[in-house]
Recover the amino acids of this structure.
């Protein structure tokens, strides 16, 4: 498909997207992804996509890419459509919905984190949504490549990785940054929190500085494409493993 040159998503990043895993044609955690996009639409003042049309777009993308039987990443994009002058939207918005799919091999081995200079703006509502304005994440990832970026917020608190949420173990508690640190409400983040409580783990959503991670163990990242992925090094220093990471990875494996 083609996108008009006056599309607000293209010109202004005015819109939302979801990236979800597909296995053998099944859209993993589809209801949670659709619900998050719907909640994001309420914040941005956009009409949410019709559920059947959104799902059909994803399934069509898989079919068109010839990935119906493979492990694939599906991106569903909703823009505010065309029109308006400058920042002002037209009175009658017509959001534009489309999807694309690409092969997504399962990740192998642990990952390394490097603290980026680019910060998350925890004061912006966009920091907690999966908007089309992802340039800060792009710049953070570019800065730390080939390693993954650890992003702090403007207050110097731990926020997230460039492509996912962060968790760690501290004194037998599972810890993750609170959403108001400028953190995306990740679908897999929610799955891990639910699994942790089912396993009887104490869970804490916190606000802390980068130094706390130096005393943590079992550091890992989550997103919908990788599930739970262990972090082996932080800024070049080895991170000690913790058995709770493997337990959580096994608990969410059916949906990751």
């Amino acid at each position: 498909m083609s996108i008009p040159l006056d599309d607000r998503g293209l010109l202004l990043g005015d819109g939302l997207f979801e990236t979800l895993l597909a296995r053998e044609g099944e859209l993993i955690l589809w209801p949670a992804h659709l619900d998050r996009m719907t909640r994001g639409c309420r914040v941005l003042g956009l009409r949410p996509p019709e559920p059947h049309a959104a799902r059909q777009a994803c399934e069509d993308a898989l079919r068109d890419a010839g990935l119906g039987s493979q492990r694939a990443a599906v991106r569903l994009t909703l823009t505010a459509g065309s029109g308006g002058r400058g920042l002002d939207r037209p009175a009658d918005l017509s959001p534009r919905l489309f999807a694309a799919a690409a092969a997504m091999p399962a990740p192998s081995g642990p990952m390394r984190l490097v603290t980026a200079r680019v910060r998350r703006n925890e004061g912006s509502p966009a920091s907690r949504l999966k908007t089309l304005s992802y340039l800060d994440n792009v710049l953070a990832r570019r800065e730390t490549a080939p390693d993954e970026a650890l992003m702090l917020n403007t207050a110097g608190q731990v926020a997230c990785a460039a492509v996912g949420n962060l968790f760690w173990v501290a004194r037998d508690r599972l810890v993750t940054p609170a959403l108001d640190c400028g953190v995306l409400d990740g679908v897999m983040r929610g799955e891990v929190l639910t699994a942790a409580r089912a396993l009887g783990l104490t869970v804490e959503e916190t606000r802390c500085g980068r130094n706390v991670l130096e005393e943590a163990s079992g550091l890992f990242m989550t997103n919908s494409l990788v599930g739970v992925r262990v972090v082996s090094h932080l800024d070049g220093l080895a991170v000690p493993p913790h058995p709770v990471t493997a337990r959580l990875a096994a608990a969410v494996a059916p949906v990751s």
Remarks:
- The chain has a mean pLDDT of 96.
- The chain has two domains: 8-103, 111-255.
